Amino acid sequence: MKHSINIKTPFWLVLGVLTLVCSCKSDQKKDKLALNSEVKVIENTPIDFKEPSQEFKAYWYAGKAEITSYKLEQARYGEIREGKAVLIYVTEDFLPKKQVKADNQNPNNVSVLKLNATKKFNTGLYPYSIMQSTFYPVSNNQHAIKVTSSMQEWCGHVFTQLNNKDEFEITSYSYFESEGDQNFKLDKAVLENELWTQLRINPKSLPTGNLKIIPSFEYGRLRHVKLKAYNAKVTLLNDTYSIDYPELNRSLVIRFNASFPYDILGWEETFKSGFGKNAKTLTTKATKLKAIKSAYWGKNKNEDEVLREALELQ
């Protein structure tokens, strides 16, 4: 019987080689895309994959949160309002896929330094309550895994959540018609919210220069500004980190302890407050009052209110 094909190399081997070559080219293309994507993300942010120092572990993995209170002078509706701000930093296990706090320890969990940043102040008759949560991985300084923000006052409440996946995935709810229920995606960029936590891990890793930054979710809500990346000029000088947004006529200056644990001493945020003829350029200020380390989640009895007095929150 005659054969129309006469080759010495078995067909299955030829097919395997061709498949491997195509696969390698495909993988190389994927690797190149991934590399380009990585460079785009980190070009202004040096990555440090070193294990946390013993000093860091002793401070942050002692089973307690760091709670710091601040005297708050908050710009709102063209006037300065007095109130209190609190920054609560704590490490916890985080599920990277579900992007929620883990109920149990697991090798696949990610260790995050979480920041719950709260503000309470009154605008005349009615109160404001603001909270922003940032879940930032301890092992690197690329981006927060998740950021959420909520704001409550007597007109209603609003909520925004960012999940860090292939892109930034945003879910947003508001009682305003123009802001309504939204789901959208953003290209990855520096998040102002994450910088407050990145600073506590290693201030030298903070990005500087001319950057694209997504402003804090709080600012976006208070000013009804579109959530996206804006041009920013950023500087780091000893114990001061400054961000200037020319497009927004807004600046943020964070003052911190230049020595570990790099605690935040206060901040100033200048922007236009109010609307129409009542709009004025004002500066929100926060000045450190007290700080404690506490496993606050277990301090829920009436007798534990003494800790609020220690933080000057009464």
Automatic annotation (TrEMBL):
Name the record gives this protein: Septum formation inhibitor Maf
Q: Could you read off the lineage of the organism from its UniProt record?
A: Bacteria, Pseudomonadati, Bacteroidota, Flavobacteriia, Flavobacteriales
